[in-house]
Design a protein that fits this description.
about 325 residues, alpha/beta, Rossmann fold, Dihydrodipicolinate Reductase, domain 2, 2 domains, 9-stranded mixed beta sheet, 6-stranded parallel beta sheet, 9 helices
Amino acid sequence: MSAGAAAGPAHVRWGIMGTANIARAAFLPGLRQAGGVAAVVAGRDLSRARAYAQANGVERAVESYQRIIDDPDVDALYIPLPNSLHAEWTIRALRAGKPVLCEKPLCGRLEETERVLAVARETGTLLWEAFVFPFHEQLAQVRALVCDGAIGELREIQSNFHFQVSRPDNIRMFASLEGGALNDVGCYPIRLAWELFGAEPDSASASAESGGHGVDLETWGILGYPGGRRLLLSCGMNRAYDAFARLLGTAGQIHITNPFHPGAGDQFQVLVPRAEPRTVPAGGEPSFSPAIAHIQAVLAGEQEPRLLAVDTALPTARALHDLARASARPS
């Protein structure tokens, strides 16, 4: 951590590695809400990076990813590069002592995830994987209801994450960049199940529709968990946005319109037989804000770090690996 990080949460200066849409659409609004500073964006094309900086309120642009790692005025890094580049640049940042928030999945392959986590443990540099919904109040409320037995014993989670990719040159459409639906959005239901079941799966079955440049356009499958619990997941890049989830218990259900990136119009509903449905709005703050606020408080010495990648990333990576293998088996 550089000296600048001690100035307080509102003064944490972030470097953004790449000009990805997710940074513009989700990270930067969350950063503004959390009071952080978008100090610099790096891109392979300097003119494009400068245009991105000007359009999105970033103070300045540089051409080299390494330059923001080396910049003493950058306190933390956000890495939204293609999955195939996560390991290299996260490891470089960790070895330089720069705290990192890396887009999910942490890496596109299990062995790369294990390598990055080994470096994080070796260096002690703080690393988070950008699943931001576990920091959100909505999940805290849902988890409390489940733990308190509001729907009895949680037995099954049904979770979707679909959206539409229209451009064939989108990075998600290339196996060489470790894209595909399972890596890009199938990881969300898996992480949700880990948060709520508190265990790793012990079985996996899946099918997939292939397309693009060697990726899965859609994947659907089942992960089994100890005690006969299960996750039924469906993910894809072929249909309208859908991030609905159902939690099914022995005494009721919880329906969540968007557990992953809830917006102002989202909510969850508790449905119990012979009782009126209870509806709870998700709130309107940008989905990245609580995670960024926590990271900034950690860098300011105000909070102890939680949900670090060294503690949370490996179960999701293993499950992604198992589902990908299962979907590749001949039927």
